[in-house]
Amino acid sequence: MRSNHKIKSIDELTEITARKRSQKKRSVLCHGCFDLLHIGHIRYLQSAREMGDLLIVTVTPDRFVDKGPHRPAFPEALRAEAIASLDCVDYVAINNWPTAEETLRRLQPAVYVKGSDFTSVESDMTGKLAREAQVVKEIGAELQITRDIVFSSTNLINRFFSGLSDEVEQYFHRFRTRYQLGEILGLIDRMADLRVLLVGDTILNEYHCCSLCAPLYRNTPLMAQRDCHRTVWGGVPTIANNVAGLARNVTLMTAIGASPSHEELIRGQLDKRISARFAVRETTPTTTRKCFVDQDTRQELFEVYIAGDLESTEASDRQLARWIQNSIKEHDLVIAVDFGHGAVRKKLREDLAAQAPFLAVVTDTNGKRASRTLGAYSHIDFCIADEHEVRAVTYEFQGGIESVVGEFRDRLGCSRYLIDRGGEGCLVGDDGGNVMTTPAFSEPSLDPNDQAGLSVAALAAFLKAPPELIGFLWSAAEALSGKNADDPYAPDGMKLKKYVTALMK
Length: 505
Known about the structure:
The chain is an alpha/beta fold. It has 18 helices and 17 strands. It has helices at 10-22, 39-49, 76-84, 101-107, 128-138, 153-160, 166-178, 181-191, 236-244, 263-269, 314-327, 346-355, 367-375, 387-394, 405-412, 452-462, 467-481, 493-503, and strands spanning 27-32, 54-59, 91-94, 111-114, 142-145, 195-212, 224-235, 249-257, 274-281, 288-294, 300-306, 333-338, 359-363, 382-386, 417-420, 426-429, 435-438. Strand 2 (54-59), helix 3 and strand 3 (91-94) form a beta-alpha-beta unit. Helix 14 (387-394) packs across helix 15. The longest helix has 15 residues, at 467-481. The protein is elongated, with a radius of gyration of 26 Å.
């Protein structure tokens, strides 16, 4: 018999707890994800029930579970039903918020209880428990932490329900023996103090979803009906947002068109911590990429780029170059987002190569452009490219990618690099000739232009992280990015740390 009669809404529980308070009854609240109910949870809830007259459990809804792709393993309705089946639990609700703060204010329990995986308020690196503890104090309740055996739902899911391929499982088994969680979290924490300058192309991405039409005649060209479209910013503003989730001091410098001017729109989508400067090109529009996608298969049909005449942009180019030259020494590293659309020209490449304290270069997926842009730098400290670019530089279009990375490194004179292989993961090389392979932890992002992993990789490379660790962080950020097409991920340091913590269990 299902215990659905115990499952209530937060509003219903608000009325129930108010009635119990009027009867001098003590309500106890527990809150958590409870993704894979285990003996540790059961003992925790049994202990909590002994602290009052009524035990209420609220469950984190699916949309707020932040433990990475494939989580929660069990949907919110099933998690709530599992909790409701326990005799010690009186009522269950699926929470309306990511934490228990507002729930505490509404239910006004006498006691709020956390499990043994929290040794103290300070042990929670997310700061959520500290905020909840403040609300507990605000409403005059007690905060209790149980003491019993500790099990981890994440560890059990990783071991028995991960859904990962054998290759990825074997990778994690090796990686966990080589690195400690504290080492990885410490590296992410160190990124926060970096001063990062981003320079490069701003791109207006227009996605046109189409339904293909059957050809009327044998030689009829491809025909499609446009069903919907959306516009998002790509290029250096997106990457700057990614970096700002990890480093507190971020400067963006780019070039945009004057008519129409998109500066206000771009600024509205930038992280508020980013200091941005836009060189305006009076006679050339902002680079626009029109991408036509099959509505059913999501397969890209073709692209059209609108870039304008770059030969008439000398004034704005000089202005951008002056800004960069005046501020480059105030930063720890420079990330050049050089997609070959003109924001980074020959003279600026020379200046960046000569003056940047540490130069990371990110290039486009267009092989022809990539061979021109990468080869135009006399010095690169860390290069991020994809397999098409590597083959364009080396002119090796057959054979495994592992066989051409050495020539790629030698041609560029760049000993440290990351090669993005999409669904196959990445390769990372260092100045000692070591090349490490990291598999993809999840499906590639549904938006191939978000490039979430590159910001983590560039900062980790500057901090002299080993290739294996750079690849791990890159794949982790890419997996988070691909989790939800409607809620794109920008590498937030805390979200990344939580996901890394989950992966290492």
